[in-house]
Write a structure and sequence with these properties.
Blueprint: H1 18-38, H2 66-85, E1 90-91, H3 98-101, H4 107-126, H5 129-133, E2 135-138, E3 141-144, H6 145-169
Parallel strand pairs: 1-2
Antiparallel strand pairs: 2-3
Helix pairs in contact: 1-4, 1-6, 2-4, 2-6
Length: 188
């Protein structure tokens, strides 16, 4: 039986350890993504990038839209976190989530994103310090679990950039990146 998972304390400012800093930044990124999604009108969700045969999301999604990007972020982060919590040694790309695929764009998808974000914060709080140094294989390379978390963060930022581009291609003004909601305390 695995030892009970302890909550990692969140420290302030320069006294933060790496996981506390990660959780703080990850939370701000998630809140910022929700701010992006909440600016959209119903028609905005189906905007596609300027045509190019190279714009697709892996082998399973042939058309990038804001909705497909949001669903992909939710699925990938859930998959990676579950693999970390289950102490998997290999992380594989998630299969499409049928229930999430049926979630309509707009407020239902924002609510699904919000719930997924809260679940990931709980998952992160369940990680132990020893979990973070564990080595695993992802994308054909060995890395630590903490390294995978930073990859998860950059993956989210990559797709948030695509969402930003889709918003701007429609002539809409996207929220300013890194003008995160938290202003009263040091976030990282």
């Amino acid at each position: 039986m695995a030892p009970p998972r302890k909550k990692i304390p969140c420290r302030k400012g320069a006294d933060m350890n790496e996981i506390a800093r990660f959780i703080s930044l990850y939370n701000q990124q998630g809140l910022h993504t929700m701010a992006y999604l909440q600016t959209l009108q119903p028609a905005d969700w189906q905007a596609v990038p300027l045509h190019s045969d190279t714009l697709f999301l892996g082998s399973r999604v042939n058309t990038i839209t804001i909705g497909t990007l949001a669903r992909h972020i939710i699925s990938a982060e859930r998959n990676w976190m579950q693999a970390l919590l289950q102490e998997a040694s290999d992380i594989v790309p998630p299969m499409p989530d049928a229930e999430l695929a049926r979630t309509p764009d707009g407020e239902p998808l924002i609510a699904a994103y919000r719930a997924a974000h809260q679940a990931r914060l709980q998952d992160l709080a369940a990680l132990r310090e020893a979990d973070l140094d564990r080595q695993l294989r992802f994308a054909g390379r060995r890395q630590t679990a903490m390294g995978l978390l930073w990859a998860l963060y950059s993956h989210h930022a990559y797709h948030l950039g695509q969402i930003d581009l889709l918003i701007r291609q429609q002539g809409l003004l996207a929220p300013e990146y890194m003008e995160w909601p938290e202003t009263e305390r040091v976030i990282a």
